[in-house]
Amino acid sequence: MIVRDKPNAFKLFFILRGSIVPHILPQIVVITLIGVLVAGLQQSYPGLFPNYSTAPFALPASPSPCFWVFVITPATTAGGRPVSCGVS
């Protein structure tokens, strides 16, 4: 039996084997470049974009962390056993 050292939290953050990061990295790069482009255009040409308040964007973002707690937390029975939801 091969026994390997358990990686610490820092090493786990950078492990790419079995991760989805290589699959979504192109999308992350494209969205980041679009954001940098829009921010640069807004800085260079302030009249190009209308002034909007950020308040409407805060409303949908506020319940988001509460939603993810329920999505990520596994359901368990009173005995502590996981509940099967039929998803594989």
Verbal overview:
- With 88 residues, the chain is mostly helical.
- The chain has a domain at 24-72.
- It has four helices and no strands.
- It starts with 8 loop residues before the first helix and ends in a 16-residue tail after the last helix.
List keywords for this structure.
88 residues, mainly alpha, 4 helices, elongated
Number of strands: 0
User: In angstroms, what separates the terminal alpha carbons?
Assistant: 28 Å
The gross shape turns out to be elongated
Rg on CA atoms, Å: 21 Å
The low-confidence parts are: none
Query: Counting H and I runs of at least 4 residues, what is the number of helices?
Result: 4
Strand/helix succession: HHHH
Mean pLDDT: 75
| Structural class by SSE content | mainly alpha
Q: What portion of residues belong to β-strands?
A: under 5%
Oligomer: single chain
Report the sheet with the most strands, covering strand number, pairing sense and barrel closure: none
Proportion in helices: 40-55%
Secondary-structure blueprint:
Layout: H1 9-13, H2 21-44, H3 55-61, H4 64-72
Short structural summary:
This protein has about 90 residues and is mostly helical.
